[in-house]
């Protein structure tokens, strides 16, 4: 009897210990032309994270139910719809109830930020944005995974008709197309980015929810040939009315007027800016291990 009691007690101790040292789960969101689970992309990131962080639960978001839909979602499912799907997956996953860290790749990064703003439960703790386009893009020099003709076609549609209603509905990239020569039109007609960046009205819910982040890490790829301008990866953009000179985040009205709460996050030392030499999403396992894994461990 004594033995049984002691054994039960031991079991209890181990369970509590496991619970209290449990690592924060991780949610991944892929970029355009990618999926949740390709072994050469997020599949391998998931593997590395699981090797480096013992026992960590990693969920790589698959939008639309299967791999083909997930791939297509990156081009053709409006971010609002994708966000509802993601919010539903995250809020019904029992492993995530106490919160999670989030890693977004390319456009997946701005989608995860939108998720933090629109879907606060369970809470996102640290958000790491890899080459995310938080102020949108103006230009599409390359289209990962698409043929040259499709890319050419997409570029034409974006250049000539990004703010047409049908294009906003049809093409994900149009919803974060940011034309600095037409700021007013962007603000009025972008159906996704202008909304989550509080360009039209200030949605206090977005500000309040974003403040709940413990950390917002933005990784910029210094030699990115896919994202224009590169500064959007640090939430900066072109100065209005031209497409050469850059306005860094801290000099932008968005920051100065604190329309999104970024200045407050910065004052609370929650914004982290990382730069890495290399092209879009090019980083090594060693870099990930050195710069990102420690952030995810505590
Ligand atoms: C602000 O954002 C929340 C969360 O997405 C949404 O429910 C609400 O309708 C928005 N409010 C306005 C005024 O757009
Ligand atoms: C990458 O960009 C940085 C900053 O612009 C520059 O200093 C560096 O020389 C570039 N590296 C390569 C390999 O082009």
Structure description:
With 298 residues, this protein is an alpha/beta fold. The protein has a single domain (23-92, 99-154, 203-297), classed as Alpha/Beta hydrolase fold, catalytic domain (Rossmann fold), CATH 3.40.50.1820. The protein has 13 helices and eight strands. The protein has a six-stranded parallel sheet with strand order 2-1-3-4-5-8, with helices on both faces. Strands 6-7 form a two-stranded antiparallel sheet. Helix 4 packs across helix 5 (107-118). It is globular and about 50 Å long. Residues 1-20 have low confidence and may be disordered. The structure holds 2-acetamido-2-deoxy-beta-D-glucopyranose (2 copies). One 2-acetamido-2-deoxy-beta-D-glucopyranose binds at residues 222-223, 277.
What is the fold's blueprint, element by element?
Elements: H1 2-20, E1 26-29, H2 42-52, E2 58-60, H3 67-76, H4 79-91, E3 100-105, H5 107-118, E4 124-130, H6 148-161, H7 165-170, H8 183-189, H9 193-196, H10 204-211, E5 215-221, E6 237-238, E7 246-247, H11 253-256, H12 262-267, E8 271-276, H13 285-297
Parallel strand pairs: 1-2, 1-3, 3-4, 4-5, 5-8
Antiparallel strand pairs: 6-7
The structure holds 2-acetamido-2-deoxy-beta-D-glucopyranose (2 copies).
One 2-acetamido-2-deoxy-beta-D-glucopyranose (NAG) is lined by residues 118, 203, 205-206.
């Amino acid at each position: 009897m004594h033995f049984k009691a002691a054994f039960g007690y031991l079991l209890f101790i181990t369970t509590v210990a496991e619970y209290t040292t449990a690592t924060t789960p991780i949610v991944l969101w892929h970029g355009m032309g990618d999926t949740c689970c390709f072994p050469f992309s997020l599949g391998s990131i998931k593997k590395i994270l699981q090797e480096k962080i013992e026992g960590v639960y990693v969920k790589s978001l698959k939008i639309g139910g299967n791999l083909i839909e997930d791939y297509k979602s990156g081009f053709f499912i409006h971010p609002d719809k994708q966000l509802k799907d993601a919010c539903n997956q995250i809020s019904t996953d029992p492993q995530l109830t106490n919160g999670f860290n989030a890693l977004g790749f390319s456009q997946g990064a701005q989608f995860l930020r939108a998720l933090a703003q629109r879907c606060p439960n369970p809470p996102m703790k640290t958000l790491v944005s890899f080459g995310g386009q938080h102020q949108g893009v103006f230009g599409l020099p390359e289209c990962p995974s698409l043929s040259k003709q499709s890319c050419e076609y997409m570029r034409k549609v974006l250049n000539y008709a990004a703010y047409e209603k049908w294009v906003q509905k049809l093409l994900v990239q149009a919803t974060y197309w940011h034309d600095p020569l037409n700021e007013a039109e962007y603000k009025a007609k972008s159906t996704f980015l202008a909304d989550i960046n509080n360009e039209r009205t200030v949605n206090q819910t977005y500000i309040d929810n974003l403040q709940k982040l413990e950390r917002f890490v933005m990784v910029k790829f210094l030699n990115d040939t896919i994202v224009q301008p590169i500064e959007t990866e640090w939430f900066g953009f072109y100065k209005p009315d031209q497409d050469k000179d850059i306005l860094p985040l801290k000099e932008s009205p968005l920051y100065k007027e604190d329309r999104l709460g970024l200045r407050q996050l910065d004052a609370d030392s929650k914004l982290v800016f990382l730069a890495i030499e290399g092209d879009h999403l090019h980083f090594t396992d060693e870099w990930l291990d050195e710069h990102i894994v420690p952030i995810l461990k505590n």
